[in-house]
Write a structure and sequence with these properties.
Elements: H1 23-31, E1 68-72, E2 78-80, H2 82-87, E3 91-98, E4 121-130, H3 131-138, E5 146-157, E6 160-169, H4 170-173, E7 179-184, E8 187-188, E9 198-200, E10 213-219, H5 226-229, E11 233-234, E12 243-244, E13 251-254, E14 259-260, E15 267-269, E16 272-281, E17 287-293, E18 301-302, E19 304-305, E20 315-323, E21 326-336, E22 359-365
Parallel strand pairs: 1-10, 15-22
Antiparallel strand pairs: 1-2, 3-4, 4-7, 5-6, 5-10, 7-8, 7-9, 11-12, 13-16, 14-15, 16-20, 17-18, 17-21, 19-20, 21-22
Amino acid sequence: MNTELPDVSLPSRLAASTEGIGFEELALAARNHGMPLEALRYDRTPIGLHYTLIHYDIPYLDPREWRLSITGRVAHPFRLSLDDLRAYPARTVRVTMECAGNGRARLRPRPVSQPWLVEAVGTAEWTGVPLARVLADAGVSPQAREVVFTGADRGTERGVEQDYRRGLSLDEAARDEVLLAYAMNGAELPPQHGYPLRLIVPGWYGMAHVKWLREIEVIEDPFTGYQNMVAYRDRQRADETGEPVTRIAVRALILPPGIPDFMSRTRIVRPGPVTLTGRAWSGAAPVVRVDISADDGDTWAAARLGASGGPWAWRGWTFDWHAVPGRHVLAARATDGDGNTQPVEQRWNRDGFANNLVHRVPVACLGE
């Protein structure tokens, strides 16, 4: 058995054209889980159905001993217990969170990693302390430029041993809606979602929402840690630096209609009126339009948008479709207020990030 760690100088691997999902990817898929698409019916995803991605191990943290350290370029470094954090005025924000690798498994060539289809998403109400309030109490230096968040989970990636750490610009970190969250959907954070404390950065992909938070460090220079400068970069070639992955790209998903075939997941419906429903979201601007196609994108028609769930949460939509016998491919395409629209053909990138290709659902209409 080969026990050598991978060489950090090597690029992430692409699957061969005939290569299926391997055991390593299956192991990742068994550890992590997506949201079943039938859960799109909920405005707020039940905790057990919300997607999870865990880079290393879920750490065990005793809340009696756990402390959050505020360090670096601040006038008053200090530590906070969970009770200290709960003593601050609380805020609750509804946030749609999506993994940056959502959709990776459908790319060709396929980046070898967590093999997401489109289910790596969920919407929850997070309760906690605005980060800006804690930073204000610490007294951030005028020379400060970035804030680094360190989790208690530790592992290796491409040979680099590390705690999971991410950096944000001070301006981004100080947004009013950025939270140090200790509750999810009104309940204590479960272990897989970062108990006892995690970061919530509305509008950003999930890699920014550091779990099991143990330290916040304010720094003057740009953060050059692995998760910012090596991982989570949009690149076409292995030898380029690429652009950082940040805000969630606009996307719509269809709540699969009818009933499923067990293996293929093809949907079975009967002829006649079918009300299609789903959700749409964007990390850049509110969703302003969703278009639906029943012929795999040859023609499109506008869906009806539901009420907004808030500036950082998905929005429901409905569409009346008259099903006729035969095979169909339903498709959904969202547009946000900045004019961003989902692509019909996906732009490829080496690590499989921000893949917001239009959602397609095969449907078989049976009967006369």
